[in-house]
Amino acid sequence: MGLSSHSLICIYFKYQAFGYKACFPLLASVPPASAYFAVESSSMAYTPSTLKPEEVASLMVQYGVKKHRDRYESIFIKAFMAGAMLSFGGLLSEVLQGGAGGLNGSNPGIVKVLGGFVFPVGLVMIVLQGQELLTSNMMIFPMAVAKRAIPWWSLPVNWIIVFFGNLAGSLFFAAILVHYSGIVSAEPYASFIKTFAIHKAHDPQWHQIFLRGIGCNWLVSVAVWQAAAARDTISKIFAIWIPIWIFVACGFDHVVANMFSVPLGIMFGAPMTVNQYIGKSVIAAFLGNAIGALFVALPAVYFYLSDNHGSRLRDAETGEVLNEGSLSSNGGEKERSTTHIE
Asked: Under 8 Å CB-to-CB from 84, ≥6 apart: which residues?
């Protein structure tokens, strides 16, 4: 239906006096175009894919407080699971290397690189499941103790519980799921398992295992640090994978990984006693791993947790710790918030 000239004149003057909403009531409920642009711009706000180093350092202290407050039986069970998870990666690595006899004779470097490539699946499962691994706690607890967020005695208590939990999980996996199951009892795997254990814990000198332990846990701590910095799962996997790949391919010594490979070799008949394994491999690798973790922990405390962070972290013992997103920018000023860990 057309509009008369009189109606058009009335609409024009009404528009001039009261705006378009008075002339067209149905349009009053339609939001302006600027609202759509606001929603679009907010959804496109940039979020960094990784946390800043100072945020990761604060997060490590937060992890230390949470682990300190956890129940002892819970810590042991998580450590048991971590020992088994790491053994899955160790078994996969030995299956690959042991089954590549021809390639090992012509190009042993490639076999080492391939064996190292598959091993990180164990640590990936541990990190994504939130289990307790001794070597990562060797970095986390010294940081929390250094900032007085937890008491000093929490460090040895946690390390002892996690050590025996990791050991129990590794021995269970080696004895029940590998040795008694017979999955690698045939050649060439049985011979390789014995040879691998001898090369790990019998042939090297004590100081060599100790030094290899330092290099190992330096890389493991870097992997755990990078995984904590990553925001999504795929990034966490890649952040873990590369450092662990390097340490296994290069032949460094990890005290928990050796809890699977060396006892498994003894079960298969490697010429080595339990006392020799403990005195030479366990103690040397443990001490080396503890020092290797400090190569990441102490510089992080010095660079990122000194001065203004210290006063807040000392209150973490009471349950107040830094929020993961506490360091945010607002008009050029840093904002801080706290949260309670359950």
From this structure: 169, 170, 172, 173
Output b/e per residue, 228-242; b: 16+ Cβ within 10 A.
bbbeeeeebbebbbe
Phi-psi region of 307 (alpha: psi -120 to 50; beta: other; left: phi over 0): left
Q: Is 205 strand, coil or helix?
A: coil
CA 294, CA 218: separation in Å to the nearest integer? 8
| pTM attached to this predicted model | 0.78
Burial of 188 (0-12, 13-18, 19+ CB in 10 A): middle
C-alpha span between 77 and 82 (Å, rounded): 9
Q: What's the DSSP call for residue 32?
A: P
- Strand-pairing partners, residue 340, are 320
Residues contacting residue 212 through CB under 8 Å, at least 6 positions apart: 204, 251, 252, 253, 285, 288
φ and ψ at residue 181, rounded to 5 degrees: -75, -20
User: Domain map of the chain by residue range?
Assistant: 53-318
**What pLDDT, in 10s, does the model give residues 180-214?**
999 999 999 999 999 999 999 999 999 999 999 99
Structure tokens at 79: 């450590």
User: For the chain, what percentages of helix, strand and coil (3-state, to nearest 5) are there?
Assistant: 75, 5, 20
Q: What are phi and psi of 338, to 5 degrees?
A: -125, 160
* Fold entry, domain 53-318: Glycerol uptake facilitator protein (1.20.1080)
Contact 217, 130 (CB under 8 A): no
Q: Is the pLDDT of residue 326 over 50?
A: no
